[in-house]
Design goal:
This protein has 450 residues and is α+β, with helices and mostly antiparallel strands. Helices cover 36% and strands 18% of the residues. The chain has eleven helices and 16 strands. It starts with a helix and ends with a strand.
C-alpha cells in the first residue's frame, strides 16, 4: 500500500507538468478565416476583403496575388481593423483593375507575434465590364463576346476566328491544342481603350494580351458590311497562335516578326505595299532590328512599321518557304536568340536576313549611331602597353615619368588571372535573365492598326 502523502505528491507533480506551457497545445496562438471576397469592375477600384479570427493581435497581414500565365506573386500590406465581436477585417484597395478578363487569384496571409504565419483560403475574381449587355458565343477554341449586332453577325466573326486558329497552327507547325481565347468586340474606340488599360498605342484598333489569353477589337458601326471585322479578328487570333507556338521563359521573338505574320495571314502580303513604297520614297524605312521591341508612335510611322513587317515576312516565305518558317518558330520555342533562330531557319544571322530584305526592296542600310568603345585611359607609371592588341602586358617598366597606355583588353602586370564564376553564380545570372525575358514578354501586347 502506497502512503497517502506520496500519492498526493505525485498527483501534484503530474498536474504541474500538465500545466507547463510547453505541454499545453491550447496555449498556442490560433487563426481561422472566413471565405474571402473581391470586386473587380472595370473603371472602379479593385477590392479584396476577408475576415479572420485570431487569439492574439496580428503582427502583420498581407494580400498575396497571382494571375494565370504570369510566374510569381505580388504581396501587399493589408489594412486591418477590429470589429466589435473581436474579429479582424483585412482589406486591400487598388485604383486600377487592369484590363478586362484579367483573373486575380488571391489569399490573405496573417503573421502573429513570434513569426507564426497562417494563410487563409484562396479566392479568384475576374475583371468585368458592366457597361454593356454582353452576349457570348463559343467555338472549339474561341469565345466571342459582343453587343449591339445580331447573333448571325457574331457567328460569322466566330467562324473567322476559328479559321484563323487553324490557319495559324498549320503555318507555324503547331500540333498541340491551342489554349482557349476570349475575344471582346467593342463598337467605339473610347470603350476599347478603357477595356485594355493604360499603355496602349493611340493608333491601335485591336490588341492581343498574352497575360490573359484575351484579344480586343473595335468594330465601328461604319465598319459593318466591310472586310474589316474579319481581318481584325484574324489578325489578333494569329498573334495568339504565334505566342502559343513560341512561348518560352527566356526570349521573346522580335515584334516585327509577330506583327508581320499577323498581317500576312489576316490580309495577305500586298495590301500594305503602297505604304511601304511611300516609306521607301521618303527615306523613312527603319531596319528590322529597330522594330524588334516596339513600333514607333505617330500614325504614319506606326502604319509604315506594319508595312515593313509584312514585307519582311513575305520575303522570308518567298525565299525560304513554310518549312523554314516552322523551323524558325520551333527554334524560338526553345528560348533561342534571334541569331540562333535565324541560323537554324536560313543559315545566316538575323542581321544577315535584315540586310538581305533591305536589299530586296532597294534600300541601303542607314548609318548606325550609338555608343562607341571608350578609348583606353592612363594606367599607373611603370606599366607598359601590351605587345599585341588584346594580349597580356609583358610587364616591361615604362621610362620614368612616362605614362603607359594599355592596349584594349590588356591586363596590368601581376594582375590575377580571371577565375570562372562559381556554378551557383552562373545559375543565378541565368535565372535573372530568364525572369527579365519573361517580364518583357508579359509587358508587351501585340497591336493591330487600321
Amino acid at each position: 500500500m502506497v502512503p497517502l502523502t506520496r500519492t498526493l505528491a505525485g498527483a501534484l507533480l503530474l498536474g504541474a507538468l500538465a500545466l507547463h506551457p510547453a505541454t499545453v497545445a491550447a496555449a498556442a496562438p490560433t487563426v481561422s478565416f472566413d471565405a474571402p471576397s473581391a470586386t473587380a469592375v472595370l473603371l472602379q477600384p479593385l477590392q479584396f476583403r476577408d475576415t479572420f479570427h485570431a487569439s492574439v493581435r496580428p503582427a502583420r497581414v498581407e494580400l498575396v496575388v497571382s494571375t494565370p500565365y504570369v510566374p510569381g506573386s505580388t504581396v501587399q500590406d493589408a489594412t486591418v481593423t477590429q470589429a466589435a465581436d473581436g474579429s479582424w477585417r483585412a482589406s486591400v484597395t487598388q485604383a486600377d483593375t487592369g484590363s478586362v478578363n484579367t483573373v486575380y487569384r488571391y489569399a490573405f496571409r496573417v503573421t502573429l507575434p513570434g513569426g507564426v504565419t497562417r494563410t487563409g483560403p484562396s479566392g479568384s475574381v475576374t475583371v468585368v465590364d458592366t457597361r454593356f449587355a454582353w452576349q457570348a458565343i463559343s467555338g472549339a477554341t474561341v469565345t466571342l463576346h459582343w453587343y449591339g449586332v445580331s447573333t448571325g453577325t457574331a457567328r460569322t466573326w466566330l467562324q473567322a476566328a476559328e479559321a484563323a486558329i487553324r490557319r495559324g497552327a498549320s503555318a507555324f507547325g503547331l500540333t498541340g491544342t491551342v489554349p482557349h481565347l476570349d475575344f471582346f468586340i467593342y463598337n467605339d474606340s473610347a470603350s476599347f481603350f478603357d477595356a485594355i488599360g493604360s499603355g496602349a498605342n493611340a493608333d491601335a484598333a485591336g490588341v492581343y494580351i498574352p497575360d490573359t489569353h484575351t484579344a480586343f477589337g473595335t468594330v465601328l458601326p461604319s465598319d459593318l458590311g466591310s472586310d474589316w471585322p474579319v481581318t481584325e479578328i484574324a489578325h489578333e487570333v494569329t498573334h495568339h497562335v504565334f505566342e502559343v507556338a513560341t512561348h518560352n521563359p527566356y526570349h521573346v521573338p522580335p515584334l516585327w516578326l509577330d506583327e508581320g505574320l499577323a498581317v500576312y495571314y489576316s490580309e495577305g502580303p500586298d495590301q500594305r505595299a503602297a505604304d511601304l513604297q511611300q516609306g521607301i520614297a521618303q527615306g523613312l524605312i527603319v531596319p528590322l532590328d529597330g522594330l524588334s521591341g516596339a513600333f514607333p508612335s505617330g500614325t504614319d510611322a506606326f502604319v509604315l512599321s506594319y508595312a515593313e513587317a509584312v514585307s519582311a515576312v513575305n520575303y522570308f516565305l518567298r525565299t525560304y518557304g513554310t518549312a523554314s518558317l516552322q523551323r524558325l518558330v520551333a527554334t524560338y520555342a526553345h528560348g533561342a536568340t534571334d541569331d540562333q533562330a535565324f541560323q537554324a531557319a536560313t543559315g545566316g544571322t538575323a542581321a544577315t536576313f535584315d540586310a538581305a530584305w533591305l536589299a530586296s526592296i532597294g534600300v541601303r542600310p542607314p548609318p548606325t549611331y550609338g555608343p562607341r568603345p571608350a578609348p583606353a585611359g592612363p594606367v599607373p607609371p611603370g606599366w607598359a602597353p601590351s605587345a599585341s592588341p588584346g594580349g597580356q602586358s609583358a610587364g616591361v617598366p615604362a621610362p620614368t615619368g612616362a605614362t603607359a597606355i594599355l592596349a584594349p583588353g590588356a591586363a596590368p602586370p601581376d594582375a590575377p588571372s580571371s577565375t570562372p564564376l562559381p556554378a551557383a553564380a552562373v545559375l543565378l545570372l541565368a535565372s535573372s535573365t530568364a525572369l527579365v525575358a519573361a517580364g518583357r514578354r508579359h509587358a508587351r501586347a501585340a497591336w493591330s492598326a487600321r
